[in-house]
Structure prediction request, 504 residues.
Amino acid sequence: MDIFTLRSQSCLRSIILACGVLAAALGLTVLTGWYTHNLTLLQIHPSFVAMAYNTALCFTLSGAALGAFALGRRRIALASGAVLALIGGLTLSEYLFNVSLGIDELLMRSYVRSGILHYGRMAVATAACFTTLGLAQIFYNLREGARRPAFLGIAGAVVLSLGAVALTGYFIGVTGAYRWGQLTRMAVHTSAGFLVLGLGSLAGAWLAEQRRGVSRPRWLPLCATIFGMAASVSLWQALVVDQSGNLAIIHQYSEAHPVLVQYVQTQSMLPYWALAGGLSMAALLGWTVFLTQKSSERAELLRVAGEKLEQRVEERTDELARTNQALQEVLTCVSNGRLKLCHTEEGLPASRRIVSGSVELSQSSGLKALRDLARNAAVEASLPIERIDDLVTAVSEASMNAVVHGGGGHGEVRLSKDDRIQVWVRDFGSGITLDHLPRATLERGYTTAGTLGHGFWLMLSTVDHLFLMTGPTGTTVVLEQGKEAPLPPWLIEQMNGDVTAIAA
Prediction:
């Protein structure tokens, strides 16, 4: 698990704990208001509805469930969720069957009557939210499987949307947003509390997914759709309630004014058009989240594939470097130290000065001129005649290969730091591949479709050292010849060993 995931989980856990503490604090504060008869804590404002005692109790239980979830206390979360589902479910049953089960004023007799149809009973939307949260906690803590976080996320989206719509209704003055028909209205701090609980449930679902190693939950588009649909249905219901009274008054005078009939019909359809538009926007929101998630997943896959490719390239580069090193050692040993394979310009031999300028090599010119320059430089350096002839032979072969196989090139004569004659020949061919390099440099008469090949064995037989740098952009050959042939490396090592033994 990387440091980013650990930090993300720690942040989500902090959010869940904070939401749990806020929800529990809200519930305990209102419970204190009920026991102390502090109407400000119950209503916030005299014109607002008071939070029911059972609602405050459920907020306390919801906060405890979130805190227990964040701390890994599954039994506490399960027990709190069960009580939540029980209270919310019984309250919904009372609304559904129009009965009183005696739970509304079981623990506290309601002494606040403003905006309450059934004394001590929480609003129907409030009961639905607590039932949803309770069932989500029960399902998550009782079952094992990959779908458990989805229920927490969906419950959080529903509760968050209902709380947001109700709170917005308070700010814009639309009572239908926090009131279903003539039923008890949702209190303003109840709606704010559901925002906190919804956010905490969503964070809890996301944390559960991250613990499973999932960074992008599959249920996120569904939650976005449900959020939009719940908000659309709530606003539709609010528009219906808000317009019903006004349209009923206008309808009384519509018989005498046909224009009013058309107006009433048009206005009565507006909530349904708004509902259709809201549901369409909800579906579009979910689809947008889905596409964004897919795009993010593909970008992540591309990033991982890129990292794997870079790692593979690095491994292949290291492997190629080791292969080249091994090949260089083999070629050096087989050629008695004469052939030196170079991979960069820095590996080529150093020069003290340039004896001649660059000579262009082509089919029609340059070959004889480079041989003459090499011969003159060797004579001037007092090389023996047989070594001069060997050098000229090697230069002829290198020049011819540059022309025939490399498409042309250029050469020049230099003097090394220890006064050896150096002839540099560069071509512009495609180079010798790694597969052909051993045969091209060591097998007599072998040739390839790339540069050099034919006559290369002859060059190794006539000069002291041959430096080779080959690649897809061309090949560089440096022929080096001195007055005397150098001793083989194995003989030098043996002589050094004998000297060391005598000194010891």
Notes: The beta strands are 339-341, 353-354, 359-361, 409-415, 421-427, 465-471, 474-481.
